[in-house]
Amino acid sequence: MHYEDLSALVGRVCRIRALDRGEDASELAGVLVEVGERRVRQGYEQFALLFRVAEAGMPQQGNYAVRFDGEDARDIFLVPVGRDGDGIAYEAVFNRTATAA
Fold it and tell me: Is 19 helix (H, G, I), strand (E, B) or coil?
């Protein structure tokens, strides 16, 4: 997962399915609403993704498969960070070793 690839997906609808719940996991409709500014410090890159999920349900942090139309699923650890209208905002934070572009 590269920052530039994820930034190009802002505003696109996606399907989000919890990986930690096996066959009982339902897919939720979501939108990638923001990709935070990428910072590189001391050999690490840092940025965050913010998703809006329409179905409120019982928000839980965990590993999710996030699939955009025409793209392979990406496994991302998401954390609910608040209510957003009738849905939930989920965040993924990346803090990892910077790779050469």
Answer: coil
pLDDT tens-place string over residues 45-76: 999 999 999 876 778 899 999 999 999 999 99
- The CA distance from 85 to 94, in Å, is 26
CA neighbor of 64 nearest in space, from 73, 75, 53:
75
pTM, full prediction = 0.86
Confidence band, pLDDT 50/70/90 cuts, at residue 100: low
Q: Return the amino acid letter for 39.
A: R
Q: Which residue has the tokens 């025409």?
A: 70
Give me the DSSP letters along 24-80: GPPEEEEEEEEEPPPEEETTEEEEEEEEEES--S----EEEEEEETTS--EEEEEEE
